[in-house]
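Researcher: Good morning. I'm working through a list of sequences from a screen, and I'd like to move beyond sequence-only analysis. For each chain I'm collecting a predicted structure so we can compare shapes side by side. This is the next one on the list. No need for commentary yet; just the structure.
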Amino acid sequence: MLLRPARDTEEDAETVHALATASFGDSHTLKGEPPQGPPSAERAARFREKFRHLAGTDPAGSWIAEDGPGNAVGAAQSHIREGTWGLALLVVLPGAQGKGVGGALLQRTLEYGRGCLRGLICCSRHPAAARSYRRAGFELHPTIRMRGVVDRARLPAPDGPVVAGTPRDRDLLDSVDRRLRGGAHGPDHAFLMRRCRLVVADDLAGSGYCYFREDGTVETLAATSRRLATRVLTAALLGLDEGVTAEIQDVTAAQQWAVDVGLDAGLALRAEGFVCVRGMRPPSPYIPSGAFL
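Model: Good morning. Structure tokens for this chain:
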């Protein structure tokens, strides 16, 4: 097996997308979930753009594993943002699992983040992944996923002003990041602003923001208080088009304010996976992004 750096190219982006599609399909089967259909063209394009963003902004954190004949069998992407390391992706073809591919990729990304004080991973319920991250020294915090069409009649209006975010809010966003996770998202905000809608709250009591996608997925949220976190999450859910299915992932037990908003909105709750942390507590009030953490 050979590990090589992943390049910021369409070819490598498509290779890793194919690996991820096969790996995630196998993961759903292991968890007893029905198989998912092929990803939409929009979802595939979003994955490739995200891959190239991380490979371009943090090339030393992206790797592809190849077998003897040179076929890609696994991939991993990690990034460092102001001393906070995050694992954005770790996928292995079903036929190559259990043969040390995932462990070698994880080790290479951990070596890249060796100088970081803090680490974050969003982990699925896949048993092998959870075992690997725990053995690597991460604390595992169980999470909730909330999903459903927002019941606007039940969800109270935000308790204060919320505005649409713009690139001018970058300093505010980075400041909130540093306070909660020890490092700003930095260049990731430019990517998120292209792909998501952004709502921001900023008053004398503090600041908060929430990125959410048109398809209803809350990408990430950070705030300096539970009150402001509740405000921006509520605004994001109410900002979805009528009938769109909302989804909020990776909600830890420390985010009961988010659970309350989800229940008020009529969303269904279920146990999902883990937020894994090393050298830090789970940020709060905070909802991580699976890729940008």
